[in-house]
Model the fold of this input.
Amino acid sequence: MSGILDAFKLDGKVAIVTGSERGLGRGMAVALAQAGADIVGVTYAENAEETAAAVAAAGRKYVHVQANLLTIEPIERVVKEALTAFGHIDILVNNAGIIMRNDSVDFTEKEWDDVMNVNLKSTFFMCQAVARQFIAQGKGGKIVNVASMLSFQGGIRVPSYTASKSGVKGITMLMANEWAKHGINVNAIAPGYMATDNTAQLRADDKRSAEILDRIPAGRWGLPEDLGGAVVFLASKAADYVNGYTVAVDGGWLAR
Done:
């Protein structure tokens, strides 16, 4: 008889993780590998050697796929390469994302379009492509999108990022509504203020950094490994009845 901890195991599963070369993507890819999944890492970078080494150290396989998700053109190839490598797909983590900071009165069309294309358009069409594969396989699957605190709040000087991450939360609910009948769970994680490249400017600004830390009940910036438990849960059988929900991993930021 299996216990509850067995429901969190990902042995034999294959996970596609976009933006797996650093930061939150690497943290989630490594956590999934430690739980038993093989990883297909999709990155703009030519390689993801540190992630590959960490996955190998967990005893799992890592296959790298280079793709620029500024357009949806590479998505079909990503799915094909994952299937060529492992024969099936069980989990998708849409982590790839970019941010542009500028006053709204000065924000350019390119700053708008680039962020929306990567963060929202490519996320949706990656979900669509993998969901089609899940349906063809007939065994369901797990999709975990990466939302943001700005899926709940307005933010400052990041209009396209706020719009895109609010959209990620919305389409996560929509896809859950449509695909639950196929055994597909679609959820999202909303990271709080994390120590990653996207927040480098904020952390370098002593005043803004202090203001942010003063509001976080946990009293610290989040780390990539802080997302490990949430992503493994949402990718596992333990979350079979969780659908369309965005889980905040934010040190208590939204509770303030």
Notes: The mean pLDDT is 97. Strands lie at 14-18, 38-43, 62-66, 91-94, 141-146, 184-191, 246-249. The two ends are 42 Å apart (CA to CA).
